[in-house]
Amino acid sequence: MSTPETRRFFLAGTAAVAAGAGLLRAFPAVAVSGSSGDASSERGERSSPVPAGWPTQPPELAREMVGVAHGNVGRVRELLAQWPTLARAAWDWGFGDWEDALGAASHVGNREIAELLLAHGARPTLFSAAMLGQLEVVRALVAASPGIQRTPGPHGLTLLHHARAGGAPAAAVVEYLEAVGEADVRTGLAPLTEAERAEMLGSYAFGEGADERIEVALGRFGPTLERSGRAARPLEHLGGLEFHPAGAPAARIRFERADGRVVALTVHDPDLVLRAVRR
Q1: CA–CA separation, 47 vs 249, rounded Å?
Q2: What are the pLDDT digits (tens) for 123-169?
Q3: Alpha-carbon span 147 to 120, nearest angstrom
Q4: Using CA atoms, how far apart are residues 116 and 131, in angstroms rounded to an integer?
Q5: Are strands 98-100 and 233-239 parallel, antiparallel or unpaired?
Q6: pLDDT digits (tens, 9 = 90+) for 63-86
Q7: In 3D, which of 63, 62, 16 has the Cα closest to residue 233?
Q8: CB distance 153 to 106 below 8 Å
Q9: pTM for this entry
Q10: C-alpha span between 142 and 150 (Å, rounded)
Q11: pLDDT tens figures, 172-194
Q12: Sign (positive/negative) of CA torsion 7, 13, 19, 22?
């Protein structure tokens, strides 16, 4: 089952990870200690092909796995064949909007990928149980922790959203959650007028570097914020041109006006991180 919100985050996630596939063998090597007479060691040059981050798996792999887990079952199989532990990979899309591979498959309703990840050791969650139609699991967790149905999933998507994404096999879970209540709560959001949307769009700089830019653009479903080279994050309006990024309700993006126009933005996570001036 597909909804505009599902497509919104699938598109944002997959676009951000497309570059990862070509980097799997491009990691720098670490220097290995040599004897006192080793000239390369004395100069500090690297002398081993061992990746610099070893034994930690490269973050590019985790990022790609979470991205393709939204819908590319072929690539998921390829990655799992070489690195089965990527079934548990997680990635922060920005501002602490953490998502794991199983969470990605669950919020878009991709049962095939979810079951494949679980078979390779992914850790089941309340959200995966809801999408897969595991009514007794969902019922037991809600009974054990009353109110847990209000917990948001990746990108702030609700538990009921995940159940609806599961389609007909999850219909009983949808019915149960609708009866329990508070499983589809999204509070604090405010409408955004066309005029407000238009005046905030543009490029903002917080330094001189090529990646010290923030682009505020109009995505398919509303405004987005993107640091150069990073994933675009949908913005949720709280009123008065104050926003929080999707899936990160503690962070704040505030737009400053002067002489009747937007001149800058500030990012708070939760304290002030940066101020970027409109170019």
Answers
A1: 46
A2: 999 999 999 999 999 999 999 999 999 999 999 999 999 999 999 99
A3: 30
A4: 14
A5: unpaired
A6: 999 999 999 999 999 999 999 999
A7: 16
A8: yes
A9: 0.80
A10: 10
A11: 999 999 999 999 988 778 999 99
A12: negative
